[in-house]
Write a structure and sequence with these properties.
binds magnesium ion; binds inosinic acid; 9 strands; 3-stranded antiparallel sheet; alpha/beta
Length: about 170
């Protein structure tokens, strides 16, 4: 498979993103990261290791309904968060924003829980595929419309364990 982003490129960019996030929140304020399973697990693991001890984390798991209803943006909750978000600075940590439907759903349901602030960090973004205009505050890499795997991203549950990101052959 063609390597799109090497391990080194990913790690360097995550260090920059972590530094940016740390600068954007006042010292002494906690930052609560919400990792989106399963795709976001590796990004979450590396991002939090590049951040200061003020970070806390939780995980949520969602799945899109079948392709036919995907355009409706309906998403099924598989695992909810363990704790509430009220009054906390929250950042959603996602692997990739494609059509934007999953992220829009997540932002809507988490915003309803009254966090002090809500932002989103995505390692990858495919802007050419967007169906809804969704705000992403931190983007690792903007990529073309190609199906990618690795670094948490799967094809039929495989390749999540790659430490780099590759383009899946047809
Ligand atoms: P969206 O709702 O279309 O933005 O879909 C986002 C979700 O689709 C991501 O969280 C991924 O799970 C999946 N996805 C989108 N593009 C890719 C890709 O290129 N490789 C693997 N998964 C992808
Ligand atoms: Mg995902």
């Amino acid at each position: 498979m063609e390597i799109l982003l090497t391990t080194e490129q990913i790690q360097a960019r995550i260090a920059e993103m972590a530094a940016q996030i740390e600068r954007d929140y006042a010292a002494g304020e906690g930052i609560h990261l919400v990792g989106v399973l399963k795709g976001g697990f590796m990004f979450m693991a590396d991002l939090v290791r590049a951040m200061s001890p003020r970070v806390t984390m939780d995980f949520i798991a969602v799945a899109s309904y079948g392709k036919s209803t995907k355009s409706s943006g309906e998403v099924r909750m598989l695992k909810d968060l363990d704790s509430g978000l009220e009054g906390r600075h929250v950042i959603i940590v996602e692997d990739i924003v494609d059509t934007g439907l999953t992220l829009t759903y997540l932002q809507d349901i988490l915003r309803a829980r009254a966090p002090k602030s809500l932002k989103t960090a995505c390692l990858l973004s495919k802007p050419s595929r967007r169906k809804v205009d969704v705000a992403v505050d931190y983007v690792g890499f903007t990529i073309e419309d190609r199906f990618v795997v690795g670094y948490g991203l799967d094809y039929a549950e495989k390749y999540r364990n790659l430490s780099h990101i590759a383009v899946l052959d047809d």
